[in-house]
Amino acid sequence: MVEKSKLYMEQYKTKQDPNDYGLADDKWSFQRFTEQMKIVVVKLNHLEMEFDLIGVHPAIANAFRRLMLSEVPSMAIEKVYIYNNTSIIQDEVLAHRLGLIPLKADARLFDFVQDDATDEGNENNTLEFELKAKCVKRNVKDSSNFDHIYKNHKIHSGQIKWKPKGKQATLYKEEDVGVIHSDILISQMRPGHEFDLKLFAVKGVGKDHAKFSPVATAFYRLLPEITLNRKYHGKEAFLLQKCFSPGVIGIDDNDCAYVKDSRYDTCSRNVYRYPHLAEGVTLSRIRDHFIFNIESVGAMAPQIIFVEAVKVLKKKCRTLLEELNA
Amino acid sequence: MGGIAELAGDENNGEGCRTFVITDEGHTLGNALKSIICRYPEVDFCGYTIPHPVENKMHFRIQSNGRAVDILKRGLEDLEELCDHTIQVFNNEVQSFSVRA
User: Would you say the ipTM is above 0.85?
Assistant: First the structure.
């Protein structure tokens, strides 16, 4: 087996493997790529995912990450008609806050709004919502609790009502397209303050505005590898254990330290604080082993976001090829 | 509106050298494509730049002893193939993970 190419983490700098001339030097072969590329899912639920992408060039891994952040479409509130706003929050600030509320709607079912379209849009590209609320005083005595004396003094995202357009009412339910979290505080009000708003949500991409990004975060890191080149025993072993994240260094029955699981090490390099420990430790990372973490905002499952990102890259290639062949 | 054009200046240098101007693309496609094309044996140089951050343009340069356009096409085809393969491997793995879990 070929030795994996590594990146060594010295005290203040990184050093490339002396035998590593960089991943760019080998010739491209799709055959080789299919043999080397591996994907291993480590964790998967409806919001979060962790998987290993092994044997790819960093440029490819980074392209996938960038695509998930800024080019996979999602739906967000884009236009707000303010018929009445007598609260103390300014119109433009309010509109911005509303825009950031995550929506459950699946962007794959909608079209992009064309440049010449009206704000109202149509059933295929726009979701319409309404937020009407007025704060009033309740007839309560001997209380200083705002929840008791005022009605509607806190406006939450759950008060946003969906207004189906055209056939939308037969296609979707409110929980499929509405707000994901109903407990986001939009504004506080006092008696006499009022909202009368109409909201239009459209499909967009993260490079236009971060509210359109389908992921909360999407990042990767390289797999850490820790090698102990000498024996660490007793007190030294426990000190060594404390230099790394919990669970990374284990202590066996003979009080000797061993590397239990280097995967979740933060690579803090704390071990360099103790020169007598550091001389026997090699910290490195595998240069083509990417640990991807995807955290979805909630509209799309993380595994779907990744596939959509790869599809976007494929589509970019396809459109350019079609133009070149035309 | 994506689009591809050629930068003037390479008319007398044969077919092997071209700078393509790709509109509405950036580092995402540029770097991924560059990483593949610069690994072709007949390519002497391949690089990309975004000349100005407010212009949605990417300059993609190929110097080779083949035809630059053909090499660009092959690069795009290889990248597309890579995407297909990645999707397939990923979907298989997600499926087998849900069976395992």
Answer: yes
Domains and CATH numbers, chain A: 6-71+217-229+280-292 (3.30.1360.10), 75-211 (2.170.120.12)
Chain mean pLDDT for chain A: 93
* Cα gap A164→A127, rounded to integer Å: 7
- Which of A65, A313, A322, A323 should we substitute to test contact with B (largest number of B Cβ atoms within 10 Å)? A313
Cα distance between residue A123 and residue B65, in whole Å = 53
Tell me the pLDDT band of A1, cut-offs 50, 70 and 90.
Answer: very low
What's the CATH number where B14 sits? 3.30.1360.10
Residue of B nearest to A71 (CA): B28
Tell me which residues of chain B have a pLDDT lower than 70. Answer: 1-2
A306 φ/ψ angles, rounded to the nearest 5 degrees: -65, -45
Residue A7 predicted with pLDDT over 50: yes
Q: Which chain B positions have a beta carbon within 8 Å of A317's beta carbon?
A: 29, 76-77, 79-80, 83
Contact indicator for A313, A234 with CB cutoff of 8 Å: no
Q: How far is B90 from chain A (nearest CA, A)?
A: 6
